[in-house]
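Intended use. Records such as the YoaR-like putative peptidoglycan binding domain-containing protein entry shown here are meant for training and evaluating sequence-to-structure methods. They are not intended to support clinical decisions.
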Amino acid sequence: MKVKTKLGDFYSRICLKLKLNKINFKNINPSKIRNIVLAFYTILLLSTIYHLVYARRVIPGVKIAGVKIGGMTFDQAKKHLEEKDKETTKDLKLKYDEKEFLIRAEDIGLVYDWDASVSRAFEVGRNGNIITDTKEKIAGLMKNLVVPASYDYDDDSLGIKLSIIRGEVNKEAKQSRVILSDENLVVSASEKGRKIIEDDLYSAVIGSFDNLDFSNKNVPIKTVNPQIVEKDVNNLLNEIEKIVSKDLVLKYGDKTWTLNQEQLLDLISLEKDENKVKVSLNNAKFEALIENIGGEVNELPRGQVTSSNEKQVLEFKIIKEGKELDVSKFTNDFKASMFGERVVVNIPMSKVEGPTDKEKYGIYALLGEGVSHYAGSIPGRIHNLTLAAERTNGVLVAPGATYSMNNSVGPIDAVHGFQMAYIIKEGRTVLGEGGGVCQTSTTLFRAVLNAGLPVVARYPHAYRVGYYEQDMPAGFDAAVFQPSWDFKFKNNTSAYILVQTSWDVDENSLTFKLYGTPDGRTVEITSPVITNQSPPPEPLYQDDPTLPVGQIVQVEHPAWGADVSFSRTVKKGDQIMFTDIFNSRFQPWRAIYLRGTKK
C-alpha cells in the first residue's frame, strides 16, 4: 500500500500543477498519466538495481582483446585475461604468395599490461558525463563495447621486422629502356612492380596486438605500373642510337678518357614529363663521372708555415694556388658533345678560390701533431713514404671540407715516382709499387686524433706492423690501398687547416703538423684495450730469385693477433662535441724470410 500511496501523492501533485497552469483536466486521460508515472518508477527501479549489481564490476558488453569481461570484478577480469594470454601463441605470421614472415612477441619485446587494460575497461560507462555514460550502458546491453588491450613493445625491433618485409615484398616497377645485347641496341621489356600498403600493414599488425589475435594475416600490397613502356622507348630508339654511335673523348693535358657505347648508354636517362618521354643525362651517373675525373685533376691550394714559436705561427705564405674541375662549364660542354655534334671535350679548370689575403686563411697555431718512426725500413720504403709525405705537404683544407689522403698523394705507382718495396698481397710478402705509403696515413691519423678533428674514413692494418709500434701502442695506425682504402678527415672548424709534413732520415722519423685557428677544443684519448690475443704461426721461408744463394733476409717480424680498441672524447669547455671509438682486429702474423736462390 506504500507504493500506491506514493503513486497517489505523485498523481495529486501533477494534477495540482496542471490546475495552477490552467490546464483543462477534461482533455487529459488519467490512465495515461498513471502509465507514464509507472514507467518512470520502473526505469528508476531498474537503474537502481543495475548500479547496485555493477557498482564494482565491469558493465555488460565490454570486451578486451576479444575476451568478454562484462559483469566481472577487477580480479576476475584480470585473471581471465591472463589465462587467455598464457594459452595464446603470440606469433604473428604475415604472408605474401609463398613468402612468410614471422613476428614473435619475444623478438619485439611485446608485453601486455592487464592491470591497465582492466582499469581502462572500468572507465566505460563511468566517464562522469551522464549522457555519454547512459549511452554506453544502454549500448552494452545490446552490443559489444571493445576496449583495446594495453601493451608495450620495442618500436625499433618492430621497425626492423617491417623493413625486412618491405625489402622482400616491395619490387620497383621496371621501366623499359635501351640495353646493349650482342653489340646491338635493343629495347628491354617493362615490368609491373608492387608496393606494400604501409598504413594497412601497420593497422593489421597493431590490430593483432590490440585484439590478442595472432591468426595469419596477408601482407596488403598494391600494383605499381611502369611509367615508361616499350612503345615510349621504341619512339626514341633512333635518337639514342645516334647519341651512342660514336665514342666521346675527354681530355686534360696528357690525360685522356674515352667513353664507349656501353658507357654512354649508362649515362642516358629516360624521363617522363606529363605524357611525353624524353632523353636526358643520368645525373647520378654523371656526378660519379665528375667525381672520378675530379679526383685525378683537382689540386688543392698549398701553403707553408715558415716560422713558428712553439705552437704559435709567426709567418705563413701561399706556395701554390689550387685548381679544380669547373663543373658548370664541363657539364654544358659534355651535354653539347653528347647530345649534339660530337667533339673532344677539354676538361675546364678553375682556381680554387680562397681568401685573397693570406692572413684570412686563419693559420695561427698548431692544432695537432703526429709522429711515427720507421727504423729498419729498406731504401725503397723510405723513398715512398717521404715522397707521399712531400705530395701531401702544404694542402689547405677549407672549412667544412673533407681531406682525402688518396686525392692528396695522387696515383701510387711507378709512373708517378713510387719505387718497389715490400707489401702484403694475398697473404704474402712481395715487392710492390708504393710499399711504405701507409706510414704517412698512419702519421696523419695520429695528428688528426690529437687535433680533435672528425675522422671520416680509417682502415686498420690486417696485422700489427712493427714500424707503427716503435713509438705508440697497437691500434694507432691507418692503412691506405688505392682505390678502395683511404684515410679522410673533416675540417669542422671555422678556418682553413694546413697539413704540413717533415721528415728526418737520420732519426728515421716522420712528422705531420696540422695548423689552423684554435677554438678551445680539448682532446682526451684512452689507453688502448687489447683482448683476444693469439700467438703468431710458425715462420715462413720464401724463395727469392733476386738474392744470392744462401742469403736470408727477414722481411716480416712475427706479430701477435689481437683485438684493440680505444676511444677519443673531444670537448669544448665542459661540453662534449663528440666521442668516437676506434677498433682494430689484427690477425696473428708469422715471421717471413726471403731465401736467396740466385746462382
